[in-house]
Structure formats: C-alpha cells, structure tokens
Design goal:
130 residues; alpha/beta; 4 helices; 7 strands; 22% helix
Length: 130
C-alpha cells in the first residue's frame, strides 16, 4: 500500500516498509494514527482522525518456527487512534472518534501460561494483513 501525503488522492494507506517491520517483529499491538475523514464540527465540516480496531490476527509461520510453535503463536492487533478532541465535540461525534484506548502491554516473556493462552485469542482471529 502507499502513503500519499496529498490527502484524498490515494485510496490506499500504509507503507510496505512498516508492514515488513511489523511482520518481522510480530508485535501484540500495532498502533498508528487513524484515517482522516470529514466530520461535522458545529456548522462546518473538518477532517478528524477516526478510531479503528482490527480483529485479532495470527502471524504466519516462519522458517524459524517449528510446527509445534506454529499453532501457538500469539495474536496481533492493529489500533488506529483518533484525534484528541474537545469533550463536547468528542461526545457529539461518538465512539468512532475516540482518541484513547486501553491495552494491556505486558511482554509475552513475563506472562504465565494462563496469560499467554489468553493472549493467543484462539477464537475470532483472521489472517495476518501484512
């Protein structure tokens, strides 16, 4: 995908370099600014970044992943964060434009087996988008 700095001129977003970095590093959470879309602000329309949360996704096996480890890989999740808005504007626009999201950022190496099992999110996972 391409990231074109001329707003509205490209229907694709993202960067192949970032996608390669994420696919290699396999983070549990990948956060970036959300897509800018027009939103009503009083009597005007202004561009605001929208919050987006992907479904959890499973990373594909690599040459260094054994078949035993392949099914036990942790899930990743992409979060696109929204613009920070004044409280009245945030309330009027609703949750689609929220700018804060709670995540439990604990390294997998510090988790016990029950926590790692929950981090795998065995249900509702999709193919890795990277």
């Amino acid at each position: 995908a391409t990231n074109n700095n001329n707003a509205g001129t490209s229907s694709e977003m993202g960067s192949y370099d970032v996608a390669e970095l994420v696919a290699t590093s396999r983070p549990r959470y990948h956060m970036a600014p959300g897509p800018a879309i027009p939103a009503p602000v009083g009597d005007a329309i202004q561009m605001r970044h929208r919050f987006v949360a992907s479904l959890p996704y499973r990373y594909p096996a690599t040459s260094s992943t054994s078949s035993r480890e392949e099914g036990s890989s942790h899930a990743g999740r992409f979060l696109a964060m929204g613009s920070v808005l004044p409280p009245a504007e945030a309330k009027a626009l609703g949750k689609a434009f929220k700018f804060i999201h709670a995540v439990g950022i604990v390294p997998l190496s510090y988790m016990d087996s029950n926590e790692r099992e929950a981090a795998r999110e065995l249900t509702s996972v999709v193919d890795c988008p990277y």
